[in-house]
Amino acid sequence: MALVVVGSVALDDVYTETEQRTGILGGSASYFSMGASVLTDVKVVAVVGDDFPDEYVELYRTRNVDTEGLVKKTGKTFHWAGRYSADFSTRTTLATDLNVFAEFDPKLPNSYRTASHVFLGNIEPGLQHKVLDQLESPLFVAADTMNYWIDHSFDRLMALLPRLDMLLINDEEARLLGRSSSLTAAAKKILALGPKSIVVKRGEHGASLYHEKGSFFLPAFPVKQVADPTGAGDSFASGFMGYLAGRVPGTPSFEDLKQALAVGTAVASFTVEHFSLDGLLHLDANKILERYQTLLDLVHIDPITTL
Amino acid sequence: MALVVVGSVALDDVYTETEQRTGILGGSASYFSMGASVLTDVKVVAVVGDDFPDEYVELYRTRNVDTEGLVKKTGKTFHWAGRYSADFSTRTTLATDLNVFAEFDPKLPNSYRTASHVFLGNIEPGLQHKVLDQLESPLFVAADTMNYWIDHSFDRLMALLPRLDMLLINDEEARLLGRSSSLTAAAKKILALGPKSIVVKRGEHGASLYHEKGSFFLPAFPVKQVADPTGAGDSFASGFMGYLAGRVPGTPSFEDLKQALAVGTAVASFTVEHFSLDGLLHLDANKILERYQTLLDLVHIDPITTL
Question: How many Å apart are CA A122 and CA A192, to the nearest integer?
Fold first, then answer.
């Protein structure tokens, strides 16, 4: 089984109260690839400019990520810059220079087309369709999206939803897409639009899974200190999809999806408690398993039979 | 075992987009008493004015709440008015007329002094001390507080904390009192101030328990529709304390506190999905038990042994 990810690869400038780094490797596909590669074989589809440092391509390769689909174009790499408030409650975007990413036209190498799992990172829904069209018969398809596409590519997004086994969105996007202030009601409406399941990422409040078999909720892992929340959502997705592609043969059950959600929660916690990709670069399966167990303890409660 | 509650009894005007009622029974002690009386014997300590309708005293009595400590004074009853936004994300306070509540001087009837459990609702910490001083040897003492007392009665609140088995506060108050934007860090600091345990109420995001034996987290019950969030926190406390006083003999263990938290979560869900006290007035233990089980299913996840 192999996991294809399509998304952005960027050069980021990240500013927190205590640390700042410029020109560092970022983008949804980077966080996703580094996280998922702990658990499965990852094949990345993305575009970079001719300014993209070789050492970052090398970083992908040291994690055994297949970079045949990482295309280099003339021009500059996607550049993003952001500053977090001292308590990380708000983020100010200082720059979003799409550069070569503006003309991104994902083409899958032949060796990618038989992949069993695919994660469509947050790109224009028309491009997400295009990636899916190039895959032979994936077992499990998940996609991210954002407010901008809900507003500006609504029809293409609507046509994508029935092609998905899983839609991964945050709570704000879920409320917008499901047209309800109640997450439960919004999730129900989104399920009716076609995806087989939904995961709503709620940041520090955890994540919820909605599926025809039922719902599941897990809090965020209680990290001692946040260093840099960049890439938390993509790291979550990487653990989720990495677990399914690497550890779950066949079509995942509701129970498998719950476990994938917990693995994603664990992986995201390593990202946020370190700066940039640092938390993912030294990650291994045992560290994830340890936090998985801590999460289970955190929600463990005994039944009561009478009241 | 008996449960004493001290708090406000008010006449409320509540406005939501679809419903409005004026002059209705409200206040922390009302929500708490109606909820807890499903599970245990409740004795209320509060003050009302001479305008307080007999039918509301009668309502307390139909729920078998001991009203010997409900004192009537010359003047008007505490009056609160508030309006919720259409999606219940914000509440505008239209009036807070303390009236006789401004001179509240809680005196416990003799028959209250041997109570095993006490809930000190959100009143001035000096008055919370005064209530505690009148109790012989309570088994379990819980208190609520608010930002205003953290700012204005800090020393008296600090002196109260070591007298508490449980401090019940919301996330904003926890961050203020624990001086950290991280709830985990804030809770740790508050525990060091003396209370044996803390429950942080996080509204639609659920509630967390912090205790020397560990932490526990439970999401909110996924109600289909919110009708009126007034009293949700006091209803949560009522289920929590009602369970301990009515169903747990002796000093509660960490496991007992988790179960109490789940019972509180269930009771609060009935409050918010109905207007005013309506959800509590037709509540019984079986309905609570049913939602307790639903909550357990919502967080149930199987271990994984290898990854």
Answer: 21
Contact predicate B203/B170, CB 8 Å: yes
**Average pLDDT per consecutive 10 residues, chain B (307 residues; last block may be shorter):** 96 97 98 98 98 97 97 98 94 96 96 98 96 97 96 97 97 94 92 98 94 95 93 97 96 97 98 97 97 96 93
A159-162, Cβ contacts within 8 angstroms, sequence gap of 24 or more? A159/A125, A159/A129, A160/A125, A160/A128, A160/A129, A160/A132, A161/A190, A161/A193, A161/A194, A161/A195, A162/A193, A162/A194, A162/A195
Q: How many domains does chain A have?
A: 1
List the structure tokens of B306.
């290898």
Virtual CA dihedral for B46, B51, B54, B55, nearest 10 degrees?
-100
Q: Cite the DSSP H helix spans in chain B.
A: 28-36, 54-62, 125-133, 147-152, 154-160, 171-178, 183-191, 232-247, 254-272, 278-281, 285-299
Q: What is the pLDDT of residue A44?
A: 98
**Intra-chain end-to-end CA distance of chain B, in Å:** 48
Question: CB neighbours (10 Å) of residue A205?
Answer: 21
Helices B254-272, B232-247: crossing angle, 10 deg rounding: 140
Are B186 and B266 a contacting pair, CB within 8 Å? no
Q: What is the pLDDT of residue A204?
A: 87
Residue B271: inside a domain, yes or no? yes
Domain carrying residue B279? 2-8+29-47+107-299
Q: Which residues contact A102 (CB under 8 A, 6 or more apart)?
A: none
Cβ contacts below 8 Å, chain A against chain B, sum to 120
How high is the pLDDT of residue B30?
98
pLDDT of residue A80: 97
| Per-residue pLDDT tens over the stretch A166-185 | 999 999 999 999 999 888 89
User: Side chain identity at B27, as an amino acid letter?
Assistant: G
CA distance B245 to chain A (A): 12
What's the CATH code of the domain at A36?
Answer: 3.40.1190.20
Q: What is the pLDDT of residue B188?
A: 94
Phi, psi at residue A279, to the nearest 5°? Answer: -65, -25
Report yes or no on A307 lying in a domain: no
Residue of chain A whose alpha carbon sits nearest to that of B239? A307
Q: Which of A299, A302, A305, A306 to mutate to test the interface with B (most CBs of B within 10 A)?
A: A299
- Cβ separation B217–A89 shorter than 8 A: no
Domain contains A306: no
B6 SS3 class: strand
Amino acid letter, residue A175: R
- A194 inside domain: yes
DSSP A88: S
pLDDT tens digits for range A62-102: 999 999 999 999 999 999 999 999 989 899 999 999 999 99
Q: Per-residue pLDDT for A27 more than 90?
A: yes
For residue B224, the chain A residues in CB contact (below 8 A) are 182, 184-185
